[in-house]
Write a structure and sequence with these properties.
By secondary structure, the protein is an all-alpha fold. The chain contains five helices and no strands.
Length: 158
């Protein structure tokens, strides 16, 4: 008895393209979600805001002066937004189908999460700059610079 070997048909160009698209979409969505995990706004969570004026020259203000959290928010925000834009652009280039619609939704979600991290970084940079300014005013006031003491006693602008 002769043995027959059954050959599967070779993949068509369309089936390879669909498989490649699913693979690329999976990688892009995974990368977007990985970058989105820590983008909850480190500056909103990890920075101690400066007190409102008027304040005294002593004791020293207790607020965050370092910019590590805003820098982290900036990096995560830019990477997440860029990934989201890339996912949306790639999905849009593949035409209209159910797979591309899901990728577009994931990309827009990545853009939104990145924008949240970028907004957090803006607040963080402002808060840390204000804290450094208050610390400097307190030091100068203690050293006898009356203009610095007046600035500490003044109501904030806006």
């Amino acid at each position: 008895m002769k043995r027959q070997i059954r050959l599967e048909p070779s993949p068509t160009k369309e089936s390879r393209k669909a498989l490649l698209f699913r693979l690329q979409r999976g990688v892009a969505v995974s990368l977007a979600m990985l970058l989105a995990i820590p983008s909850g706004g480190c500056s909103w969570i990890g920075i101690t805001k400066p007190p409102s004026r008027p304040i005294d020259a002593t004791p020293p203000v207790q607020c965050t002066t370092g910019v590590a959290a805003p820098v982290g928010d900036t990096i995560i925000g830019v990477l997440t937004v860029a990934t989201g834009v890339a996912v949306v652009a790639f999905a849009a280039s593949m035409g209209s189908n159910k797979d591309s619609a899901g990728a577009i939704v994931a990309g827009v979600g990545g853009i939104a999460l990145g924008a949240t991290a970028l907004a957090s970084s803006i607040y963080g940079y402002n808060w840390t700059a204000e804290c450094r300014e208050l610390e400097e005013l307190q030091k100068k006031c203690i050293a006898g610079v009356e203009a610095s003491c007046a600035a500490l006693r003044a109501e904030p602008d806006g």
